[in-house]
Structure formats: structure tokens, C-alpha cells
Amino acid sequence: MNPDEQSVLGPHGLRLGRLEVRIAQDSKEVLAAQHLRYKVFYEEMGAKATAEMAAGKVDFDSLDKFCDHLIVIDHGTGDLPPAVIGTYRLVRRGAAQRHGGFYSSSEYDISRLIAYPGEILEVGRSCVAVDFRNRPTMQLLWRGIADYIAAYGIDILFGCASLPGTDPKALAVPLTYLYYYHLAAPYLRTTALPHRYVDMRLMDPGDVDPEKGLAQMAPLNLLPPLLKGYLRLGGFVGDGAVVDEQFNTTDVCVIVKTDLIAQKYSRHYELKNRDPII
User: Fold this and answer.
1) Contacts of 179 by beta carbon, 8 Å cutoff, 6+ apart
2) pLDDT digits (tens, 9 = 90+) for 240-259
3) Does 278 map to a domain?
């Protein structure tokens, strides 16, 4: 976070029972988020850590010092200090410029998003501790993002969303479905970089039922909950998937116009929403 700026969510954030969501306030809280990322991405999901990451059990890169880290804190830890149990990395245009670019630009040509006249926000490195992967936690994370979007006038949210595994053929159904039924309009469309481009059209579109849509994906567990959430908010994907060997995933670039997020998770919105996006 830029040291000259005050946290959008304030030092006490937003509370839901024992959980609180806010922007990390200091290096210790950022480190706690990086430890959580390591536990989820490397120990649980099989990502490949560098020697330095493994030694400290932290996931980090050069962008971390320029961005905002949205965190969910569990205050119900008894005599122990509160624990960071959820996190999301938020990168605005200015932060990316100070860093030298967005993370997504390592996988996609995002020039159309950069040229967009409104404010844009890259989201990524999203994870939640296994014992807290439930509706209240995700509701709180999205409430925090919605407040952040409102505070900074964000028009477009985007980022690399991951499907598990590095074999695109094993992901033929979801990749084909996403390309034919959720491809972004040309003026916002990102395209995987030529040397990383994997064609998403791996099946005949007639073999994927557009009427069933997300429901067809659910029984096969083919779309991660977070990606389903983006689509239910009217999100689209760019052209081309990217295999990420380090994180043991196959990525798609998701683009969301934020008006629906603001409507669904505004400051005055009831947190116990009966139609969650997860």
C-alpha cells in the first residue's frame, strides 16, 4: 500500500462475527498473508516454490510491495494473536506503473484494458484457509472488494483465474465452454501471449450445452467456485489459456465490469445475502 494513503477500509475494517476484513496495515500483516498463500498454493495445491520461498514458507514476488493486500482476520483464536485466514491482492493502475506492469501482463496482452479510460483493478493471489472456505468468509472478502471498488471508482476488475492442473486436454469442457459462451467483447478482450497461448477451443461447441451453463460445470466440479463467481457477476474471459507450471494450474484471464459487484455488495447491502456468488 502506498504509505501516503489511508486504508479504504480503515484500521478496524468491517466485521462479521469473529471475522474482520480490511487492508493489511503493516509488513507483519502482509507477511501473514504471504504465509497463508504459501500454505494454500504450495503445501496444499502443489505449486513449485523457490529455495527462498521454501525456507521462509512464504509466497512472494516483486509486485507485493506495491499493491494493497486485502485480508480476512479471525479474532476467535482464544489466547493466540488473531490469524489471517483469507487474502486477496489488489493492484490499481498507479501501483502497476510503479512496479513496471501488472502481473497479468506476464501471461496476457492486456493493452486494451490498460487503454481503457476508466480505473482498472487487477485481483489475484486469492486464497482462504481450509477451515474457513465457506459462504461467510467469501461474502466478507467480496464485501471488502466492493468497498474498495466504490472508494477508488474502479470500472474494470480483471486477473488470472486458475483451473487445477497443467493438462489443458483434461480441462477441455470448461475451456471450451468459457471460450464459446463467455468470451469478452473485442474492445476489452485480452489475448494470451503468443509463446504461452493455448487454444481453448478443444471441443466442438455443440458438445457443451449452453442452456445448462454453470449448472453443467457444477456436478463435474470443472469450474472453481471463484471463477463461477466472476461469471455470475457477468464476467468474461480473454482469448487463450496459459499453463502455469509454477502454480500447477491452467489460467484464464477474467474481466468483470464492476457495476454488478457494487450493486450486490455495496456498503448498505445485507451481508446475509441469500444469492451469494460463490
Assistant:
1) 200, 201, 237, 239
2) 999 999 999 999 999 999 98
3) no
Cell matching residue 68 = 494493497
- The cell for 91 is 493492484
Helix (H) or strand (E) holding 55: helix 51-56
Query: Is residue 5 domain-resident?
Result: no
Residue 7 lies in a domain: no
Q: What is the residue range of 33's domain? A: 14-264
* Segment holding 54, helix H or strand E: helix 51-56
- Quick one: residue 198, left, alpha or beta (phi over 0 = left, psi -120 to 50 = alpha)? beta
Tally of domains in the chain: 1
* Within a domain: 249: yes
* CB distance 206 to 181 below 8 Å: no
Q: Calculate ∠ Cα 258-262-265, nearest 5°.
A: 130
User: What is the distance between the terminal CA atoms of the chain, rounded to a whole angstrom?
Assistant: 27
Mapped to the 3 state alphabet, what secondary structure does 103-148 carry? HHHHCEECHHHHCCCCEEEEEEEEEECHHHCCHHHHHHHHHHHHHH
Residue with cell 446475509: 272
C-alpha cell at 265: 455488495
pTM of the entire predicted model: 0.87
CATH number, domain at 256? 3.40.630.30
Query: Do residues 254 and 150 make contact, with C-beta atoms less than 8 angstroms apart?
Result: no
Task: Give the three cell numbers for residue 196.
Answer: 504461452
Per residue in 29-50, pLDDT tens?
Answer: 999 999 999 999 999 999 999 9
